[in-house]
Design goal:
seven-stranded mixed sheet; 3 domains; Lambda Exonuclease, Chain A; 9 strands; 11% strand; globular; binds iron/sulfur cluster; 46% helix; two-stranded antiparallel sheet; 14 helices; 383 residues; alpha/beta
Length: 383
């Protein structure tokens, strides 16, 4: 978020985010992976602000004593780079063959060598690169041929601020369609890949597709996922339908609370600078409302810290979103157990409110009482 256009309000926001990040701390740019994770948990103000301010959440988690083993190993990183270079080698000939084979319009001939335009997208700064990308897409679409944009840069407005994103590639078809290409190093074995990894790649591609849609282009609702074939280093590809991810990500990003609002709720002087003492940082993080869910463990560097806090508070969030939803107004494990025992106070959620204010026939409490009775009967029968 380092390239917020200058206007009085954005200048003020930029200054405030820099204060929160810490003096002289360079911002960590948001990427599509982070945005996809943010969109998957739009209720988490903690992540929204820390990501928006460019705080190094990994360093913060380490300082808080809860580092998360997160991200790719150096080996996986190097292997991914080598595979991508191979896929894009020879002017992208093999990649465009895959684009044609999996996402080309029926009857359109495959591009011959030398028929694919590969525009130069170099420019200084992300804004310059985004503008070069926009012009290259416009030109390639107008010319009506094949084009391959290698590491283009696109912009997406998120929570009131622009974010720059860099897909692996975007292919332009002769019919004017733009297809997002993602190159991953996990294998496609016998035509199938790990669904969790495919899902993560699709969520990431959906973020790029939304940014391309903002440019007014005809964006393919399928992405091309390129992976190694079986256990070889040969590329293979599948078209992945993005419609569901597009709808979800669009909806979730629109729900993200504006950063100004979250920052305004913090007192002056609060900072997330990892150089500050751990107890000061813990207090600063505590002030940001979180929405922990077990999914955080695979998507957020602060997951161990947030899980520890949620457990310490006896929060039912640690049981997962489904259980959390089923339990309705029962927000703590203590309240759930009390409800199962049929204690009226259980419905207060353990927050000290008057239980007589709660509905007498709370369906979650009734279901818990029934479950507890059935369990007791089953145990009595067994003994
Ligand atoms: S780990 Fe914490 S900060 Fe990260 S998304 Fe989950 S609740 Fe939010």
């Amino acid at each position: 978020m380092s390239d917020i256009p200058d206007s009085p309000s954005t200048t003020a926001l930029r200054r405030r985010l820099a204060e929160l990040r810490g003096a002289d701390v360079a911002p960590r740019p948001l990427d599509a992976r982070a945005l996809a994770a943010l969109a998957a948990n739009p209720g988490c103000r903690r992540r929204a602000l820390l990501d928006g301010a460019g705080v190094d959440k990994g360093a913060l988690a380490k300082k808080l004593g809860s580092p998360a083993a997160f991200g790719q190993s150096q080996f996986a990183f190097a292997r991914g780079h080598a595979f991508e270079a191979r896929v894009k080698g020879d002017g992208g000939a093999e990649l465009m063959r895959l684009v044609h084979a999996r996402t080309g319009t029926a009857g359109t001939p495959a591009p011959e060598p030398g028929e694919v335009a590969v525009p130069d997208l170099t420019a200084s700064g992300p804004d310059g690169r985004a503008e070069r990308t926009r012009l290259a897409l416009e030109r390639a679409t107008a010319e009506g041929g094949w084009a391959l944009l290698n590491h283009p840069m696109v912009r997406l407005e998120v929570a009131g601020s622009p974010v720059h994103l860099e897909p692996d590639a975007v292919a332009v078809h002769p019919d004017g369609r733009w297809t997002v290409v993602e190159i991953k190093s996990f294998p496609i074995l016998d035509g199938a890949a790990d669904p969790t990894k495919v899902g993560a790649a699709a969520r990431q591609a959906a973020v790029y597709a939304l940014a391309l849609q903002a440019l007014g282009g005809r964006v393919d609702e399928r992405m091309l996922l390129v992976c190694p074939k079986d256990f070889s280093n040969l590329p293979t590809a599948e078209a992945v339908d993005l419609r569901r991810q597009l709808a979800t990500t669009r909806r979730q990003l629109a729900r993200l609370t504006r950063l100004e609002e979250i920052a305004a709720a913090l007192p002056e002087g609060v900072t997330f600078d990892p150089a500050r003492p751990a107890d000061e940082l813990a207090e600063a993080v505590r002030r940001l409302p979180a929405a922990y869910a077990p999914q955080c463990l695979s998507t957020c560097e602060l997951a161990f810290h947030c899980r520890e806090r949620a457990r310490a508070a006896g929060s039912v969030e640690v049981l997962g979103r489904e259980a959390r939803g089923e339990l309705g107004g029962l927000t703590t494990v203590e309240a759930v157990l009390a409800a199962a025992r049929g204690e009226a106070a259980s419905l207060s959620g353990g927050d000290g409110t008057d239980p007589s204010d709660d509905p007498p026939d709370d369906p979650a409490a009734a279901a818990l009482r029934r479950a507890a009775r059935l369990r007791a009967e089953a145990l009595a029968g067994r003994s």
